[in-house]
Write a structure and sequence with these properties.
7 helices; globular; 8 strands; 4-stranded antiparallel β-sheet; alpha+beta; 214 residues
């Protein structure tokens, strides 16, 4: 299933959005340390100001633990921001469900629109978890994966297995060879399936443009 919802942004995201009219795409999320901090892999497009100003604001924000950002242009940055907390992360990352975050990005109102993919039974459980964690959210869309996403049943099943077994964790909890043994196919075949699935997911994400839907 495809679930889109909108939630309040964390302090450092709101600061970038309000102070520098930044649009932030969260490309990846990961618990680090003892699970109390969250690493965000981000793509930041600044509307005003410079990357140096953005770094200063992030470093002065009490919720930000560390930053490792590269300047792609005078108003474009990409890298990792580690923060003490994340509004929706405990619900998304802390669940035993296989949840794949397709996109998460700030909107003009400085909220964050999330698009996630998960099993049918996972939708009410994830929404319930968000409520229990005190996350105020608005559901924008719930439905089957759209045809333009172009994942086959086999790709989706193997991708879910890879997520559940820790292939996409950092560090990885299972190797490609071990995962291939678990799903009963050759490592070379598994690699081809995962690459095709990842390419389709990335293509869907990049084709969305800059407008927020979430």
């Amino acid at each position: 299933m495809q679930l889109q919802f909108q939630a309040r942004a964390d302090d450092w995201l709101k600061q970038l959005c309000n102070d520098q009219s930044a649009q932030v795409r969260i490309l990846g999320l990961k618990f680090v340390g003892r699970g109390q901090e969250v690493a965000h892999f981000v793509d930041i497009a600044l509307g005003t100001g410079s990357p140096g100003e953005a770094r200063q604001r992030l470093e002065s924000n009490p919720s930000v633990m560390s930053t490792e950002l590269s300047d792609l242009s005078q108003q474009h940055m990409m890298g990792v921001i580690v923060a003490k907390s994340c509004m929706a992360c405990p619900s998304i990352l802390g669940t035993n469900l296989a949840v794949f975050v397709s996109s998460a990005r700030t909107g003009d109102d400085c909220t964050v629109g999330y698009k996630v993919f998960l099993g049918n039974e996972g939708v009410p459980l994830l929404l319930s978890r968000l409520s229990k964690e005190g996350v105020s959210y608005t559901v924008k869309d719930i439905g089957p994966v759209s045809p333009d996403f172009k994942l086959t049943t086999r790709q989706l099943g193997i991708l879910r297995s890879a997520m559940e077994m820790g292939f996409y964790d950092f560090p990885r909890r299972i190797s490609l060879t071990e995962l291939a043994g678990k799903v009963g196919i050759k490592p070379s075949t598994l690699s081809e399936i995962l690459r095709a699935a990842e390419k389709n997911i990335l293509g869907s994400f990049l084709s969305e443009g800059d407008e927020i839907e979430g």
